[in-house]
Amino acid sequence: KRGKKGKKDPNAPKRALSSYMFFAKTKRVEIIEKNPDIAKDVAAVGKMIGSAWNALDEADKAPYEKMAEEDRARYEREKAEYAKNK
Is residue 54 part of a domain? Predict the structure, then answer.
């Protein structure tokens, strides 16, 4: 049997996004605009985003990695502040 899931505090800071997630947020809109017929097919859109990510070289991934690093720092700051005030 599974245990009950604890309630999440709505005031807790949102987790940091990965570089891939930042890429996916921007690319998803672009893919759906170019292929409106697959807009409702989440799996197909996800596969297209994944293959586009894998096709990028390190230089093209760098801006997304920088965004992820900044978001990670934001999360750590907010988490420390949240823990202090909890």
Answer: yes
Where residue 45 sits, what CATH number does that domain have? Answer: 1.10.30
Is 26 inside a domain boundary?
yes
- How far apart CA 42 and CA 23 sit, in angstroms, is 16
The 3-state secondary structure of the chain, one letter per residue: CCCCCCCCCCCCCCCCCCHHHHHHHHHHHHHHHHCHHHCCCHHHHHHHHHHHHHHCCHHHHHHHHHHHHHHHHHHHHHHHHHHHHC
Give tens-digit pLDDT for 23-79: 999 999 999 999 999 889 999 999 999 999 999 999 999 999 999 999 999 999 999
Query: Which range of residues forms the domain containing residue 68?
Result: 19-85
